[in-house]
Amino acid sequence: MSVKTIYLAGGCFWGTQKFFDQFEGVVRTEVGYANGPTANPSYQEVCRSSGHAETVRIDYDPAKVSLTQLLDWYFLTVDPTSYHRQGGDMGVQYRTGIYYTEAEQLPEIRARYALEQAKYRQPLEVELLPLANFYPAEEYHQKYLDKNPGGYCHISKDLLHLAGN
CA dist 4 to 51, 56, 70, 86, Å? Predict the structure, then answer.
């Protein structure tokens, strides 16, 4: 199996991780902090506007799920025109972003981004950047909504069960 990786910032990372964990072809997810100016930030630092985005690392099997399909699902869970806000969460850490590590992913990402942009008059607020850095979040954040089923999530419960799981 050849595994690929994409990093998606979709507001609060708890719901984004839970959302992507439901799909066949997603091999592994991990929540963390991406594209910020300092190394190994704590959650408290991120909440104090460290400049990192709450991000989910998604390892996927491209033989089972395409990057385009992952991005289709991603755009179901975010308001791509919202600046530094998703649902009730506001701040730089809740910005949206697609962060890639392989240049060959870029044409597919740009094509899907353009399809989304065509739906709106204003420019999308979803960052499209190479991954500068990623630091795993503390263990208590990993699979948070599995550990705390009543935890807050900006993603509708219907979407958390989109794959029928």
Answer: 26, 14, 12, 27
